[in-house]
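Design a sequence for this backbone.
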């Protein structure tokens, strides 16, 4: 995007601004990095962006370990999906270039609906795959991904080895923030493989986490070992308190009759 702006003699966004728009649909990205540009010139800027991106695309490798992790999750029977700011043509090209065509059960692109951070993409994917929000885990490297997951009612893990910095990702309170693909694999192995339900309880007004949540495990036998492994651990700067949920005690009725 920086080179595209430079080609048109526009103000060139700094690195922070350029990285912020990663993951957005192209129209929203252009509005953000070139606010003074009139809409009639968007096709011109878009064309220059595609020129530079496609020229460099073959030089952009997968993160180390991603191919193997995807293969492991697929073999384990997980439904894999992609929600991307790329166009359908762009995603197809990337998947083919990296030999990943066919590994994802569903994909949704920015030119097929509302782009990130609107939840449309994830809502569509969940509907297509017939899964509930509490059965869905979004893994993303931008705040747009985490906002999308929150708005769709799904949980999310932030990966801090991509576009947006750890500090910005952590503000959106993902289940975890990992710094490498190895850490992501470890988190999934330790917690994700036996989890059948996960929900962070959020304030109805602000949407912020209320500081607690619920997780259901596939096997009851995993309960005590999971508690012992996680209780007292630090997550995103906080100490976890993990215990078995107990039924809520009904509050005594406070209603009184008057005559």
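Sequence:
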């Amino acid at each position: 995007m920086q080179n595209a702006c430079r080609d048109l003699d526009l103000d060139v966004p700094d690195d922070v601004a350029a990285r912020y728009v990663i993951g957005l649909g192209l129209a929203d990205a252009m509005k953000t990095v070139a606010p003074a540009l009139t809409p009639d010139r968007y096709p011109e800027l878009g064309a220059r962006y595609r020129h530079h991106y496609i020229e460099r695309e073959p030089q952009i490798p997968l993160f180390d370990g991603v191919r193997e992790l995807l293969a492991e999750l697929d073999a384990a029977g997980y439904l894999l999906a992609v929600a991307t700011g790329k166009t359908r043509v762009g995603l197809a090209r990337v998947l083919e270039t990296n030999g990943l065509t066919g590994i994802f059960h569903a994909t949704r692109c920015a030119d097929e609906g509302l782009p990130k951070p609107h939840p449309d993409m994830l809502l569509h994917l969940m509907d297509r795959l017939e899964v509930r929000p509490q059965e869905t885990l979004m893994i993303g490297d931008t705040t747009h991904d985490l906002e999308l997951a929150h708005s769709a009612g799904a949980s999310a893990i932030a990966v801090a080895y991509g576009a947006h910095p750890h500090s910005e990702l952590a503000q959106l309170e993902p289940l975890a923030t990992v710094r490498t693909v190895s850490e992501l694999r470890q988190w999934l192995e330790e917690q994700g493989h036996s989890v059948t339900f996960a929900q962070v309880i959020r304030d109805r007004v602000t949407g912020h986490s209320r500081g607690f949540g619920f997780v259901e495990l596939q096997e009851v036998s995993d309960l005590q070992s999971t508690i012992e492994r996680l209780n007292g651990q630090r997550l995103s700067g906080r100490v976890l308190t993990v215990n078995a949920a107990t039924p809520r005690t009904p509050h005594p009725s406070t209603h009184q009759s008057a005559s």
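The first helix runs from residue 2 to 7.
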